[in-house]
Amino acid sequence: MENHNSNTSFSTAQNSLFDKISNSTVLKLFVILFLSLLLLIPLTLISDLIEERKTREQSVSEDIALNWGQEQVISGPVLAIPYRETIQKPIEKINDATTLEYKQTKWIFILPQNANITTDISPQQLSRGIYNSVVYNSSISIDGRFNKIDVTKLEIPAERIDWTGSRLVFGIQDFKGLGKRPLLSWNGQELTFDPDFNNLKLFSQNLVCPISVSPNENENHFKITLNLKGSKSLNFVPLSDQTNISARGNWANPSFVGAFLPTKRTIDKTNFSASWEIPSFSRKLPQQWSGDILPIYRFEKHKGSLTDDVELTQAATSTASSPIIPSDILVNSDMITINFLPDINNYQKTTRVAKYGILIILLTFTSLLFTEIIKKKRIHIIQYVLIGAAMVLFYTLLLALSEHIGFNPAYLIASIATVLLIGSFIKAITKDPKTALLFGAILGTFYLFIYLLMQLRDYSLIAGTIGIFIILAILMRVSTKINWYQFDNNHADQ
Q1: Suppose 115 and one of 18, 24, 240, 347 were both cysteines; which one would form an S-S bond, judging by CB atoms 3.0 to 4.6 Å apart?
Q2: What is the residue-averaged pLDDT of the chain?
Q3: Bridge-based pairing state of the strands 131-146 and 220-231
Q4: What is residue 492's DSSP assignment?
Q5: Is the bond preceding 82 in cis, omega lying within 30 degrees of 0?
């Protein structure tokens, strides 16, 4: 009997201690904070899922580009004139000879005096499954002139120059984008380019045409026309002493980046036009140089891999008899680039929304705790866990829907579904429709706040900071109306 009373007394004391712990608002606050931090784990997994889907989209986009035509780079033309050079190589003494002489072909490279580039671009989106990739067709015309050829500064004897072997070299990035051979008009003579895979490797992929040049001609005029397909971006390497570029197309949101911004641009809902006037002052290359064949540029695709990773182990001689060192090689930042951005980047927006996940969870749990205290309705910690799971699931729902119907409709559907789910759950817990309606309105306001931040872009930081400040001010004001000891004194409804 005494043992039974002792057990009963221990059980009563244990229950009393458990009730005190369960009813402690401070302890519950710490449990909610711990739960919020715990929910960072599924939020991180969702961020990884977004990156995985984004990588999958990039893979499909690259596959489309491989079949259609990759990012294109228009470069040149460059006039190449061969000459013979006698090379003396020291050897071990053989028959009283200590050097070996042999002939080697080297080249004189001359850049145009001016080039006028005009292009009409027709971008479009190709679909594969649920993924889209921006591709384009373009018609390009390049006309200009070379000044009278004067190679005396290069100090090359005239008898060593092979004028009959002169070539005009023109570069693009991907031959697959060519529908037919580019045409060349050289001093009124109609010619065609042929691909060169072995000799004149000035560019990523080279088009070469034999031409007739003479040091006695005052000027040489050229015009190049071609139709070119590509994807994502169209790039130009300004090599002339004066380069003028005019581009237009039917795309609403192009991006102009690179070494020079357009001097004029017009963009509306369906079309754009832009023009550049580029002198040679910032060009890394001289107007003419001689020596071995070196790549003029190295192009880096958007995803970060190099399409042409060339070891620069050779040297050339400029007009000032100084070598062209690797720092003289042109890169993306020396080019003119027109990027064709997709209308909406769903993965980028979903990633930005997911970064606010912990903020929304904390605000929601705080609002739920205040609702619990003000309405004197107990909400179990397990129910907090279920509400947190529903909020985490919002981001997966947003990601899945945005791949099919776009970001804006997906955000609307996912947020409404989440608000209705949690609101109905609160109604079932509290048995009070007004409380559920109020909490649903608060949660909906949070989702609307995040959506507006997504639209503001440049002003999202200041808008977000002001918004959080206002929310904190409201919570501080509401907290002054609450008796924070009511649960500890067991005045809450059980």
Answers
A1: 240
A2: 81
A3: antiparallel
A4: S
A5: no
Tell me how many degrees the CA angle 398-401-405 measures, rounded to the nearest 5: 125
CB–CB of 232/325 below 8 Å? no
One-letter amino acid at 53 equals R
Q: Nearest-5° angle of CA 479, CA 481, CA 485?
A: 80
**Secondary structure element (H or E) that encloses residue 249, with its range:** strand 242-249
C-alpha 357/C-alpha 414 separation (Å) is 14
93 membership: H or E segment, kind and range: strand 72-94
Does residue 201 contact residue 208 with C-beta atoms inside 8 Å? Answer: no
Among 149, 158, 150, smallest CA distance to 211 is for 149
- What token pair was written down for 226? 């071609």
Q: What are phi and psi of 294, to 5 degrees?
A: -125, 145
Amino acid identity for residue 102 in this structure: Y
β partners of residue 222: 144, 186
pLDDT in tens, 102-129: 677 888 888 999 999 999 999 988 888 8
Helix 357-375 to helix 407-430 angle (10° resolution) is 20
Q: Residue 40's closest CA among 385, 361, 352, 350?
A: 361
Report d(CA 369, CA 33) in Å as an integer: 11
Closest by CA to 349, choosing from 289, 298, 303, 409, is 409
Higher pLDDT, 79 or 24: 79
- 142: alpha, beta or left, given left = phi > 0 and alpha = psi -120 to 50? beta
